[in-house]
Amino acid sequence: MSDTIEKVKCLIIGSGPAGYTAAIYASRANMFPVLYQGTQPGGQLTTTNEVENWPGNPEGITGPQMMVGLQEQAQRFGTDVRDGWVTKVDFTGPIHKVWIHDGKELHCETVIISTGASAKYLGLPSEQHYLQMGGGVSACAVCDGFFYRNQEVVIVGAGDSACEEAHYLSKLCKKVTMLVRSEQFRASKIMEARVRKTENIEILMNHDTVEVLGDGQVVTSVKVLNKTTNTEHEIPATGFFVAIGHKPNTDIFKDFITLDETGYIVNVPGSSKTNVTGVFVSGDAADHVYRQAITAAGTGCMAALDAERYLASLE
Q1: 15/247 Cα distance (integer angstroms)
Q2: In this structure, what are the phi and psi dihedrals at residue 119, rounded to the nearest 5 degrees?
Q3: Which of 107, 192, 216, 262 could form a disulfide with 185 if both were Cys (CB 3.0 to 4.6 A apart)?
Q4: Does the pLDDT value for residue 199 go beyond 70?
Q5: How far is it, in rounded angstroms, from Cα 264 to Cα 288?
């Protein structure tokens, strides 16, 4: 075997709540996990200013603080946390081969995929500015809606998730303006009907977002284009929610792992197992329904336990 090949008992790919929780459990089970943090160490939560729904933090905690704590806890039990990301895999044989961006080749007995999913954004410079500032742009109403209680917000989207998030926000916010970029919803009829009959949701069909406006720190309004009349106007808002979908970070696995039509990994129901023996999945790479830190952490625990049982079955 080449000197450049490293043998790993348990490889964890990704460093969000799912990856770090898997690492904590795997370390305590003497599986000597190696965790590669990926291109966004800490995952999506590193872009979240305040997390108030994580159990055990009654005063709330910032996303970066939470990720630092999870990393330190995993390292305390012996997880080998490394910078870098996976660029290629080969799951055709009993040894799972994985290549890191620097050319390192790993031969793994078990692999836990915790690569997550990335929210899709419109790509406007102003949108990205306030997203990075933590000043009013979000892709998760359940995560951040509480901060806009009794305020006016705008949400962009036309699918079931957008309708669900708009309805959720309507229970917290004074007014929700929903921008649908075409002349019809993509959502199911029942979800469309739900938002249409909610009194404090105003639906603007055939509208595009031109710019997210603010004072440089926080959002104050959203400039939109009515494509029917070709006129622009501003909508007062302190929050701008983007609900145009997520892209699971699973492309490098598609030749080996079963994915659904939108790219999410298909797991064996009630477990973290994939179609490849010895390869497990946790977090948002397989979850297109809940996408919460706490559910990701739960599946990270499941993946580590499933991997431990798999290794025990080989002895």
Answers
A1: 17
A2: -65, 140
A3: 192
A4: yes
A5: 7
Give the pLDDT confidence score for residue 46 in this predicted structure: 74
Q: Which of 143, 173, 287, 306 is catalytic?
A: 143
- Told to judge if 144 belongs to the known catalytic residues of this protein, a careful annotator would answer yes
Instruction: State whether the Cα torsion 42-47-51-54 is positive or negative.
Output: negative
Q: pLDDT tens digits, residue range 205-250?
A: 999 999 999 999 999 999 999 999 999 999 999 999 999 988 999 9
Amino acid code (one letter) for 13: I
Query: Helices 17-28 and 293-314 meet at what angle, rounded to 10?
Result: 40
Region class of 245: left (phi > 0), else alpha (psi between -120 and 50), else beta: left
Question: How many alpha carbons fall within 13 Å on the CB side of residue 17?
Answer: 22
Span 99-136, pLDDT tens digits: 999 889 999 999 999 999 988 999 999 999 999 888 89
pTM for the model stands at 0.83
Of 140, 160, 208, 301, which residue is the catalytic one?
A: 140
What is the SS3 assignment for 41? coil
Q: What pLDDT, on a 0 to 100 scale, did the predictor assign at position 1? A: 42
In whole angstroms, give the CA distance from residue 163 to residue 149. Answer: 18
Query: Using CA atoms, how far apart are residues 90 and 41, in angstroms rounded to an integer?
Result: 24
Whether 143 is a known active-site residue: answer yes
Active site residue 10: no
